[in-house]
Design a protein that fits this description.
Distance between the termini: 14 Å
Number of strands: 12
Catalytic activity: 4-CDP-2-C-methyl-D-erythritol + ATP = 4-CDP-2-C-methyl-D-erythritol 2-phosphate + ADP + H(+)
Function: Catalyzes the phosphorylation of the position 2 hydroxy group of 4-diphosphocytidyl-2C-methyl-D-erythritol.
EC number: 2.7.1.148
Protein name: 4-diphosphocytidyl-2-C-methyl-D-erythritol kinase
Strand content: 25-35%
CATH class of the largest domain: Alpha Beta
Family: Belongs to the GHMP kinase family. IspE subfamily.
Oligomer: single chain
CATH architecture of the largest domain: 2-Layer Sandwich
């Protein structure tokens, strides 16, 4: 058994998000293109008699639960149940991915816990088994394990890697207050019903996004960015529309609400463009972070 392990797991963006109609269980099938970004969570695990987690770092808040409702503890308990492991762990997470911001920070934490405890407890589970367990924890967890760029279907947990050329430069405008993912989906359903829209039961990924990623073309990718959840997020948080307009006025090639929001992701042409946009958003009193993509999935770093 290892004495201490450290794992880094990435946040994500949804470059394209098509949402189907609600199913009887209330969930929606989606067709999305995930991209992992360099903004990442870092989890350290050490042997202990019980299971515990603590949070620190720029995105940590006192509101984060540290009991059995937290995805880190749930991941540990799931590993125990699946393997019969009896070990404990004391875990610490340095949070850099915004909380409730549509960037999968909690999912990254869960993925990091799976990888860390697999190593700490000497379980030797392969990637495929970890992906299966990750899907039990949440739709975005398998992608946090995989990283890179991938198409996600089903609830987002059925993944197919996407060929990507070059690197993309993003500037992320982080809101002070998060948005509830279930609330955004409910708002989308209500807006569609009011407009008489009947979405596809099984949505498909936009071909233009995949073509832009293969060619490494940020201009083409910016034109293809799309998120069905954006209208609902803007309806719940109208100020996001002003933020999107501000980014475009200051040189962003394109922008969209990431996932269920409220983080807004702006695509820049290059590093200089990203730096300039970050300065402009910061001057307007927004919290603006730079990130490159694609990034690796959850992996041991120490």
């Amino acid at each position: 058994m290892a004495r201490r392990v450290m794992v880094r797991a990435p946040g994500k963006l949804n470059l394209s998000m098509r949402v189907g109609s609600p199913k009887p269980d209330g969930y929606h099938d989606v067709a999305t293109v995930y991209q992992a970004v360099s903004l990442a969570e870092e989890l350290t695990a050490e042997p202990d008699g019980g299971l515990s987690v603590a949070f620190e770092g720029p995105a940590a808040t006192a509101a984060l639960p540290v009991d059995g409702t937290n995805l880190v503890i749930r991941a540990a308990e799931l590993l125990r149940e699946a393997t019969g492991a009896t070990g404990g762990a004391r875990m610490r997470v340095v949070k850099r991915v915004p909380i409730a911001g549509g960037m999968g920070g909690g999912s990254a934490d869960a993925a990091a816990a799976l990888v860390a405890l697999d190593a700490l407890w000497g379980l030797g589970l392969g990637r495929d088994r970890l992906l299966e367990l990750g899907a039990e924890l949440g739709a975005d967890v398998p992608f946090a394990l995989l990283g890179g760029t991938a198409v996600g279907t089903g609830r987002g947990e059925v993944l197919a890697p996407v060929l990507t050329s070059g690197a993309f430069h993003w500037v992320l405008a982080v809101a002070d207050e998060g948005l509830s993912t279930p609330a955004v989906y409910r708002e989308l359903d209500q807006l569609r019903a009011a407009a008489g829209e009947v979405p596809d039961a099984a949505p498909e990924v936009d071909a233009g996004v995949l073509q832009a990623l293969r060619g490494g073309d940020p201009v083409q990718l910016a034109a293809a960015l799309h998120n069905d959840l954006q209208t609902a997020a803007l309806h719940l948080r109208p100020a996001l529309a002003d933020l999107l307009a501000l980014g475009l006025r200051n040189g962003a090639l394109g922008g969209l609400v990431s996932g269920s929001g409220p983080t807004v992701a702006f695509l820049a042409a290059d590093l200089d463009g990203a730096l300039s946009l970050q300065i402009a958003l910061s001057a307007a009193r927004y919290t603006a972070l730079r990130a490159t993509a694609p990034a690796a999935g959850a992996r041991l770093v120490g």
